[in-house]
């Protein structure tokens, strides 16, 4: 696919449109053949475009709407009462074929509800799942799902997450037999909720899945599993807790290196190596959770995303669109799910 068009919801998130426009400016430089449809309030966005000197950019089209889905809006209400919201119009662009992917840092529930209704899911898939890459000790990224789209999941839904995550890891990360695990409060078969234990049995009985059993939270980034499955409530808390700890370690270490003169001297020698190590852990570079299981690419950026994080979400959407990920994995997912039912 030589030329792509990405739809951008410019009005979502906690930090406002400024970080979206800053990320867009960087994306225009990184992807010289990509066009961007930007949906939002032109009265707010045009001054930001002017500040970034992209107001007349030939690869940016601004489509005005003054309807916005707020972060605390209920998903069902947003779907019914805000047909011209920037998020909805961005998803509509994908559904209509005007864009190959949508990127938003807005309301997660609303994003999933609208995408579910407008794009539909792969045959056999009960619910789409938010999946994102996470760093591992092995150096290659793992996949964690669900991250908040489905706070409560039954065994069948967790099983399908395992199937979809395994296919994604194989097709995108190139892992021949991805190791799949369920996140649990212990590794023993008797641990966990009924849904988790039943999903474990279903995965163990599926010959198409390399299921390795339960893992606990302290092994989330160990690389023991290439794909880690959980409900959205657990996954969202686990991921954000780890992000917060990474930020705390970074701040504490930075503070200590600015103290005593000897510490400052050591910091001068270690700065480059420290920055390189932090880049591997920096949550911003892993921003961008894909709604896996839809007939199109929908990328959810963190609600509190920085401009750098939102740029990485755009970058991830661009990669999945370029690789035609939905088309590459849909047939395989459908085949495995239908055979496993």
Automatic annotation (TrEMBL):
Keywords: Acyltransferase, Cytoplasm, Lipid biosynthesis, Lipid metabolism, Phospholipid biosynthesis, Phospholipid metabolism, Transferase
Recorded metabolic or biological pathway in which this protein acts: Lipid metabolism; phospholipid metabolism
Catalytically driven reaction(s): a fatty acyl-[ACP] + phosphate = an acyl phosphate + holo-[ACP]
Major location category of this protein: cytoplasm
Gene Ontology biological process terms from the UniProt entry: fatty acid biosynthetic process; phospholipid biosynthetic process
Gene3D superfamilies assigned: Isopropylmalate Dehydrogenase
Superkingdom of this protein's organism: Bacteria
MF terms (GO), sorted A to Z: phosphate:acyl-[acyl carrier protein] acyltransferase activity
Subcellular location: Cytoplasm
EC number(s) per entry: 2.3.1.274
Listed GO CC annotations: cytoplasm
PANTHER family documented for this protein: FATTY ACID/PHOSPHOLIPID SYNTHESIS PROTEIN PLSX (PTHR30100), PHOSPHATE ACYLTRANSFERASE (PTHR30100:SF1)
Similarity comment: family membership: Belongs to the PlsX family.
Subunit structure: Homodimer. Probably interacts with PlsY.
Protein task: Catalyzes the reversible formation of acyl-phosphate (acyl-PO(4)) from acyl-[acyl-carrier-protein] (acyl-ACP). This enzyme utilizes acyl-ACP as fatty acyl donor, but not acyl-CoA.
Protein name: Phosphate acyltransferase
Taxonomic path: Bacteria, Pseudomonadati, Pseudomonadota, Gammaproteobacteria, Alteromonadales
Gene name in the database record: plsX
